[in-house]
Amino acid sequence: MDDSTHDVLIIGGGVAGLVLALELADHRRVTLLRPSSDDQGASRWAQGGIAAVLSPADDIEAHVADTLVAGDGLCDERTVRFTVEHGPEAITWLLSLGVPFTPDPDPDAGYPYHLTREGGHGARRIIHVDDATGRAVVETLIRHVEAHPAITLRSDLTALTLIGDINGHCRGARCLDETGGLQALLAADTVLATGGASGLYRHTTSPHPASGEGMLMAAELGAELMNLEFQQFHPTCLFDPDGPPFLISEAVRGEGGLLLNAHGERFMPAIDSRAELAPRDIVARAIDAEMQRTGTDHVLLDIRHLGDAAIRHHFPTIQAHCASRGLDITRAPIPVVPAAHYSCGGVATDLTGATTVPGLHAVGEVACTGLHGANRMASNSLLECLVFARSCAADLRTPRPAATAALLPWPHGATRLPQEEIARLGAAMRQVMSARVAIVRYDEGLDEAATTLARLSDDLAPRIASAAPDVALTSLWQALRLARLTVACARARRESRGLHHNPDCPHHGDAVPRPSRIHLGDLGRE
């Protein structure tokens, strides 16, 4: 194994990782691991935009209040206020880098850039780049990262595990290069920006979703995980069983899109007074229930009434993509289905991204800051990436004394597990998670999921120690254990709240709600 020493190691190159690298590189040298798969990750596919108080007609308190309502009693109000208050300056920073946000053509508009509205928001506060915000932001950030002399960008390495020492500190990461060679990257500080865990499910809104690898890497070093049971399903993913996943932005409903069942009837007004603009958990459950009631595998999202010009103006990316799949959304409604989208839980961190493991920070979807509570409000995700990456950078600008304790060994062998077997076990895991731990969960189904996942884990565990380092196998082993931790959190929450809806306990509990907290070692106490 080849060893190298680094100052700050960032694992993951979505918006959070890129922002952190740029904000830190004027103070310390940065090594950024950004595999090619990051180009298909969640950041690039974020269509709607970034929520921030930018209009004179909006205010901080309103954004805070809307976020708290969407989070269904589990948001950390201090974190919410911190995030919202730092949102406007983060947008100003992006503008200074040249992100081409869509201007507002109205000369009387109170803000020069167009602001849209999405579910859960009481005002227009979503700044965007047409309907491809994530792609525009990522491409702008990458240009600056590639030009910065203090940032070393590595696309040839995939992190497998974190390196710990005998004092419980994080000391970097073990990686596999493109030739299959092992490399140990020792670092003074390590930051996870690896994304969420929607890849634990069969249907997702991302072509290459993370499966919680970073969360489990942190847990292996003893980090605390929080709120894993709150997995958000985006209400509207394009329904096309024969094609790749494609997100239909929340902004489509924000601009007036209507949800219809198979009979062409609206169903949201009877469920919530906000109708199509209700928070995502409500809309996703309503769609799921309507599909079950009508015996169909999708519903319809209709924007034909907006007219050709408005559709092409507001949603050029969505319109073009649907056209490439044979669907003219100016003439026909869009078939949609809920799909796993965003993990509200993750590695527990403070306001600087620090985890419970010294030397390890986490930013973006891999982290659980307390902002989202039991349900993330639309477009607060990129906001969180920006605010916490900048906060983390401020915390890391002053180097800490280098750790010198002995490193923990990393046992591994040379046995190769067939890729077909890895694929089979992964498919079995995603099947049970989708069937039993998705939008609606029952006690019996959660028990079944726990048993099935334990059996899959027990089947794989004896082979891990003797297995040769392998990206797919390591990812599977991390995903399996994270899935088990997720089910344990869901079984322990004896109430329905936010994204966790269990008809066997449909109401909120009487006690003040508290976040769920779990460690990897808790699996042995089930």
UniProtKB/TrEMBL annotation:
<comment type="function">
    <text>Catalyzes the oxidation of L-aspartate to iminoaspartate.</text>
</comment>
<dbReference type="InterPro" id="IPR015939">
    <property type="entry name" value="Fum_Rdtase/Succ_DH_flav-like_C"/>
</dbReference>
<dbReference type="Pfam" id="PF02910">
    <property type="entry name" value="Succ_DH_flav_C"/>
</dbReference>
<feature type="region of interest" description="Disordered">
    <location>
        <begin position="496"/>
        <end position="526"/>
    </location>
</feature>
<dbReference type="InterPro" id="IPR027477">
    <property type="entry name" value="Succ_DH/fumarate_Rdtase_cat_sf"/>
</dbReference>
<feature type="domain" description="Fumarate reductase/succinate dehydrogenase flavoprotein-like C-terminal">
    <location>
        <begin position="428"/>
        <end position="510"/>
    </location>
</feature>
<dbReference type="GO" id="GO:0005737">
    <property type="term" value="C:cytoplasm"/>
</dbReference>
<comment type="similarity">
    <text>Belongs to the FAD-dependent oxidoreductase 2 family. NadB subfamily.</text>
</comment>
<dbReference type="InterPro" id="IPR003953">
    <property type="entry name" value="FAD-dep_OxRdtase_2_FAD-bd"/>
</dbReference>
<keyword id="KW-0285">Flavoprotein</keyword>
<keyword id="KW-0560">Oxidoreductase</keyword>
<feature type="domain" description="FAD-dependent oxidoreductase 2 FAD-binding">
    <location>
        <begin position="7"/>
        <end position="382"/>
    </location>
</feature>
<keyword id="KW-0662">Pyridine nucleotide biosynthesis</keyword>
<dbReference type="InterPro" id="IPR005288">
    <property type="entry name" value="NadB"/>
</dbReference>
<comment type="pathway">
    <text>Cofactor biosynthesis; NAD(+) biosynthesis; iminoaspartate from L-aspartate (oxidase route): step 1/1.</text>
</comment>
<protein>
    <recommendedName>
        <fullName>L-aspartate oxidase</fullName>
        <ecNumber>1.4.3.16</ecNumber>
    </recommendedName>
</protein>
<dbReference type="InterPro" id="IPR036188">
    <property type="entry name" value="FAD/NAD-bd_sf"/>
</dbReference>
<dbReference type="GO" id="GO:0008734">
    <property type="term" value="F:L-aspartate oxidase activity"/>
</dbReference>
<feature type="compositionally biased region" description="Basic and acidic residues">
    <location>
        <begin position="496"/>
        <end position="511"/>
    </location>
</feature>
<keyword id="KW-0274">FAD</keyword>
<dbReference type="Pfam" id="PF00890">
    <property type="entry name" value="FAD_binding_2"/>
</dbReference>
<dbReference type="InterPro" id="IPR037099">
    <property type="entry name" value="Fum_R/Succ_DH_flav-like_C_sf"/>
</dbReference>
<dbReference type="GO" id="GO:0009435">
    <property type="term" value="P:NAD+ biosynthetic process"/>
</dbReference>
